[in-house]
Write a structure and sequence with these properties.
15% strand; globular; binds nicotinamide-adenine-dinucleotide; single chain; binds 2-amino-3-ketobutyric acid; six-stranded parallel beta sheet
């Protein structure tokens, strides 16, 4: 049995990733780990350990003693939260990664997944169908940490043969778990407010296009990337990945088509500047060519599933 550890497992991605990995590899094979004292109900079908990604000694001891072969390292501060606490964001987003990369370098871990983000791009990046290889001058502490993380992942692969794989996730949209402090969170919040109040005030302006993806696609991409033969993984920084792209106005129109009483207005805050520095849409042809990636959910399909499943 391959033992898999998911650090940061109680967040938006971790919750669904742990469930999907347990379905594929068995409940006991996938250990959920997070800062939280208690494991959320939804993850109680398998093992849970309280773990601080910054506690290097505990992480090392746990991984070595329990013969963990694969680590998904999800613990991080996201873009909006990171801007409020840059020093800690840099520390959390980088130190945890080095602990895991070093364990792999020493031969204790066989495979690592570490997520990057569209935040690695900046205002000087071509915004439409942003290519895999292009100008990357991020202007947020989160983006800087993700870009640095990508460089270190590639370095550890080239220099020490570490099998590390990564995706530049777009904004992720889900209903099983809530988002945790990002700039794209409006695209989840909007569904809760649509269902509970029939109206939503958006913290981004109406014509702010951003790359987004439904969580089912993101989880499938992650596991497909991790299960692909190593020789197919040509990019060891992080792969561009595209799902759907839309503006708040376009998303609102799709919601209104299914829920005609829905209303939206706009009150942009500090997150507008972050969103303005990110791409409108992504070219993910390298992921398609190298490991066969193809998104299944467009905006319309995602909106339908979200409205059907979000509890008001
Ligand atoms: P989240 O904020 O929802 O979850 C993060 C989890 O990590 C939380 O459960 C938190 O308790 C845990 N955590 C925080 N500090 C920790 C620590 N020191 N030790 C252990 N656990 C800790 O984040 P998410 O949306 O699930 O994102 C996971 C990863 O994916 C992050 O690296 C993020 O940058 C990346 N990502 C997410 C998105 C998105 O839209 N959700 C997009 C791009 C990249
Ligand atoms: C955020 O908005 O910070 C995240 C991301 C795109 O990395 N959702």
């Amino acid at each position: 049995m391959t033992k898999i550890l998911v650090i940061g497992s109680c967040g938006q991605i971790g919750t669904e990733l742990v469930l999907a990995l347990r379905t594929q590899f068995g409940d006991q094979a996938v250990i959920a780990a997070d800062l939280k004292d208690e494991c959320p109900d939804i993850l109680q079908n398998g093992p849970y350990v309280k773990m601080d990604a910054l506690d290097r000694d505990h992480v090392r001891q746990y991984i070595i003693e329990n013969k963990i072969e694969q680590v998904y390292l999800l613990a991080a501060l996201l873009s909006a939260t990171a801007e409020k606490n840059p020093d800690f964001a840099w520390r959390l987003n980088m130190e945890g990664l080095f602990t895991i990369l070093d364990l792999a370098k020493e031969g204790h871990i066989k495979k690592i997944f570490w997520p990057s983000s569209i935040a690695v791009f900046g205002p000087t990046t071509p915004a439409d169908l942003t290519p895999q290889h292009t100008i990357m001058e991020p202007t947020t502490v989160y983006g800087i940490s993700k870009q640095a993380g990508e460089r270190w992942c590639e370095y550890y692969h080239n220099k020490f043969g570490v099998d590390v794989r990564s995706i530049r996730y777009p904004g992720l949209i889900s209903y099983k778990s809530l988002p945790g402090g990002g700039t794209t969170d409006y695209a989840v919040d909007i569904f809760y407010k649509a269902k509970s109040e029939g109206k939503f005030t958006c913290f981004l302006s109406e014509n702010t296009a951003l790359p987004m993806m439904f969580m089912d696609d993101a989880i499938r991409a992650t596991i497909e990337l991790m299960e692909s033969p190593a020789e197919q993984i040509k990019i060891r920084s992080a792969y561009n990945l595209a799902g759907c792209s839309f503006t708040p106005a376009q998303l609102a129109a799709e919601i209104k088509a299914l829920q005609p009483n829905f209303e939206i207005d706009y009150a942009p805050d500090f997150r507008q500047a972050i969103a303005d520095s990110w791409p409108n849409s992504i070219d993910d042809s390298h992921a398609t060519k190298d490991w066969g990636w193809k998104a299944q959910f467009d905006t319309k399909a995602m909106v339908k599933v979200m409205l059907e499943n979000v509890n008001s």
